[in-house]
Amino acid sequence: MPIYSEKVMDHFMNPRNVGEIENPDGVGEVGNPVCGDMMTFYIKVKDNRLEDVKFKTFGCGAAIAVSSIVSEMAKGKTLEEARKITPQLVADELEGLPKNKFHCSNLGAQALGKAIDDYLSKKSKGGKK
Amino acid sequence: MRQVYLDNAATTPLLPEVREAMLPYLGELFGNPSCLHSWGDAAREAVERAREQVAQLIGAEAEEIIFTGSGTESNNFAIKGLALAQQAKGKHLVVSAVEHFSVLYSARTLEKWGFELTLVPVDKYGVVDPDEVRRNLREDTILVSVMHANAEVGTIEPIEEIARITKEKGIIFHTDAVATAGTIPVKVKELGVDALSLAGNQFYGPKGVGALWVRKGVRIIPLLDGGVQEGGRRAGTENVPAIVGLGKAAELARANMPARIEHLTRLRDRLLNELPRKIDHVVVTGHPQNRLPGHASFCIEFIEGESMLMWLNSQGVAVTSGSACTSRALKASHVLLAMGLPHALAQGSILFTLGINNTDEDIDYVLEVLPPIVERLRQMSPLYAKFTKAGKGGK
């Protein structure tokens, strides 16, 4: 039996929203090569909504699938709604993740959260609106 | 779609001749070798024939062979059983940093039981320096264990040289020959070791069977107590069909070894030479020449092994990786790290272990499907993006 669900395999092999955003409003980077996964999320915000979300990921099948689904789940959401994307919701949306890969879903949610933090801190410093 | 199995270090397929030899013992010849009736006689004869076949493979005496349930059991038995038998003389063990977990963790267990352990480092090719072993020997050293070849990077270790040192000092020397026995010539007298582990599923025999050779006169404490099977050294009713299969596989390995080595070496060298020409930023892991015949291992920069493995699997190609994500424990290969590879590079580990059924067409296919996979994964890798932006080259 394959260790990944069909949905994970789909998002792994056909990841959505791969890439970088030029002049992003926020960037969130998590992970390191020691743990094995690194994710960078880029966001574009308009009227408090995530107008665009893109990512680059170094990591296993689960890490890539998580990045893809998080980008899909986040796109179009308000910042407050996007913050409610929990690792559990990510795993559920992927129709489950192997136990030892659950931390990948954590990374996805974290990377997105960090990108939002980055946007908000830039905004409060009066740089971008 | 073409199916290409390149994970023979995990397990080789069972040869049809081996399966044929085993079948009667899964059928009418079901006796227990310990029994004194004719059913028992037939089973006992089969086990003793297999013992002879395995002994011949490694140039040993049949009575020195102990059948076990796996290479892992052989290693556990050797490390724990030999150390426990020697503990009145001392409690210090020396093993290499790149041993299989069944050796490393057996040694760790002995540490918990009051033994002391020294890990000997390796160079960038994964080679153990015999002088480094010598420097780490103490008055109370009772056991040295260094593997004959490393299954992750293919490097063959200088066992003869280490054996000269241990012999001089009167210290017991075990080698884990799971990756070599049945694959390259392994003769216990030439190697000069005192104990040697091997496993059936590494040379076209069945899984779930291995053997430990212990030189006559060397004491070992059994791990399994019970009946007097295996000369009282390993209790438990024998896995007769598997033992018969191991024996048959040993016989075939001995007869066909030169031809197998020639075939595997040629295909391996194609991969080692041609893959780095097709893909940029690839490092061969392990010793460039002194390595197992069917073993081609690499680290591919900026991408992670499991994602490569899964993509290759989708194209019908079976490989393995030493990346953290691939291991259930989520730790990068201790072998690659011991060789001094940085974590990011170790994550890109990919391992092709060839078998006797592989062909040139298999190699052509891998060389065709892998480069676009690597390219695709690099396009989504933040490490690759950083690398190309830093202007250090790239594509």
Structure overview:
The complex is a heterodimer of chains A (129) and B (395). In chain A, strands 1-2-3 form a three-stranded antiparallel beta sheet. Chain A has helices at residues 6-13, 61-74, 79-83, 87-93, 102-124, and strands at residues 26-32, 37-46, 49-58. Chain A has 129 residues and is of the alpha+beta class. Chain B is α/β, with parallel strands linked by helices. Chain B has helices at residues 16-22, 38-58, 71-86, 101-112, 130-136, 159-169, 188-191, 240-278, 305-314, 334-338, 343-346, 360-379, 382-389; strands spanning 4-5, 65-68, 92-96, 116-120, 141-145, 172-176, 195-199, 210-214, 282-284, 295-300, 317-318, 349-353. In chain B, helix 1 packs antiparallel against helix 8, helix 5 (130-136) packs parallel to helix 6 and helix 8 (240-278) crosses helix 12. Chains A and B meet through helix 1, strand 2, strand 3 and helix 2 of A and helix 9 and helix 13 of B.
Largest binding interface between chains: A-B, 31 and 26 residues
Return the string of H and E elements of chain A: HEEEHHHH
Rg of chain B, alpha carbons? 22 Å
Number of helices of chain A: 5
In which order are the strands of the major sheet of chain A placed? 1-2-3
- Alpha-carbon Rg of chain A, integer: 14 Å
The overall pLDDT average of chain A reads 92
Count the DSSP helices of chain B: 13
Beta-strand portion of chain A reads: 15-25%
Poorly predicted ranges of chain A (pLDDT <50, ≥5 residues)? Answer: none
C-alpha termini separation of chain A = 50 Å
